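haha ok so turns out i had the wrong file open the whole time. this is the CORRECT one, sorry everyone. sequence first:
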Amino acid sequence: MRKTILTKSWPGTGLAILLGLAVALPMAASQARLKPPPLAEESVQHTMDVTELRRIIEARAEQFVADDPVWNFTYGGVQMIAVSDRNADRMRIIAPIIKQDELDAAQKDAMLEANYHSALDVRYALSNGIVWTAFIHPLSPLDEAQVISALDQVRQSALSFGSSYSSTGLVFGGQTKPANEVN
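then structure:
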């Protein structure tokens, strides 16, 4: 049986905001120095910005609470956090899954294997005692379809944790074992 902290019963959004900031601040500091120069073809393409990202997410969220640069929201019944940093040109959409101390060795192995095969544009990760699913990407190259895909993949990977560990119906490369065979 899967234990989850993915509920609407968290008192307020304070914990989610704190967790989001705990994830965002180290990202901003490390990414600010790593911003690559734009490619020539990117300079003529549409550029995503924080305002447009917020518009896309807020339009699709069931609930949305902003405490910039952290946005807490529910999408498809899943509690999520979006964090953006315009100076570093980075963004992430994350969803908490379970407490790390509830994670067993088989689940850890399965999520790591899924990061290679079935969690396509998202990754399972550990941070601050929580297992997360995370979509992490440069902000400016994104388009609306990619943001919607990110939301869908974060949702699906959160819901499939403990079973298929997948972000879509696709599996890239090798075949993972079914969840009931993971030992």
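The first helix runs from residue 14 to 31.
again sry for the mixup
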